[in-house]
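Students often ask what a holo structure prediction actually looks like on paper. The answer is less mysterious than it sounds. You provide the chain, you provide the ligand, and the output is a string of discrete structure tokens encoding the 3D arrangement of the protein together with adenosine monophosphate.
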Amino acid sequence: MAVTVVGSVALDSLETPFGTRERALGGAATHFSLAASFFTEVHVVGVVGEDFGKDDLAVFSDRRIGTDDLQRIEGARSFHWSGRYEDDMAVAQTLATELNVFAEFDPQLSEAARRASTLFLGNIQPDLQRRVREQSDARLSGLDSMNYWIESARDSLVDAIGRVDVVSLNDAEVRMLIGEPNLARASRALLELGPDVALVKQGPYGAVMYTGDDFFSIPAYPLETVVDPTGAGDSFAGGFFGFLDSLGEESPSRNALRCAAVYGSVLGSFVVEDFGTERVQRLTRREIDGRFTEFGEIMSLEAP
Ligand code: AMP
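The corresponding structure tokens follow.
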């Protein structure tokens, strides 16, 4: 069992009410792979520049994430994203996006990355997502995107969504893509584009999951301090797909999908406790399972 993830491996400049970080390791594929690595083998597919240091690479190797498909281009700089969060921490304000090496990114998957049982297409140009999907033998696949692609490449994105099993977007993105303000209707319409599962993230309010015959609502863990929300969505996806992959089921059961969504929320709740990847770097599987149990308690109900 293994997961392949394709997406940004970035250096992020972050500003939150709790402080700042300059060119800290980040990127959608980074956050996803770290989260998924607690459950299964991971291969990260991406590109970095010569400013990507040994320490950054060690974060992957320390969690035994395969980096054979992480291309390094000498004489060029890594993808750089700079973002700021105001007091409510709900929405990132993008200050700068420098594509650098990412502008020419056209991944060719290695044999090991192709053969992985699960594929996650992180937030990249949707035609590129489709091309990666075509190279992969994965039996379970998922995709994330963002408002920029919904606005600039909607048709390509709809096509890419039609080729995956799980689509993971936040609530504003689902409404925008479908053009329907009611989230339940919009999520149903999203499933009609092809996927079996719609994972709809709601930032500090948790997430909801729609399948053909199930609806599941996952609360956000009641954290009293959120230091840096960056990577919450990708860590959620990493926990979700990493856990599902580890089960090795041909077609995940209703309960497996529900547990995966809770593991997603657990991983999302840890990453925001510190800047960038710092919290997940010192995270243990024991802490993950402890919080999973707490989620079960938060969500349980007995009839009076
Ligand atoms: P999220 O999980 O949604 O908070 O994603 C956070 C990560 O997305 C950051 O670490 C950024 O490096 C990365 N990111 C931000 N903008 C883009 C973009 N346009 N394309 C790819 N990755 C991005």
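The chain is about 40% helix and 25% strand.
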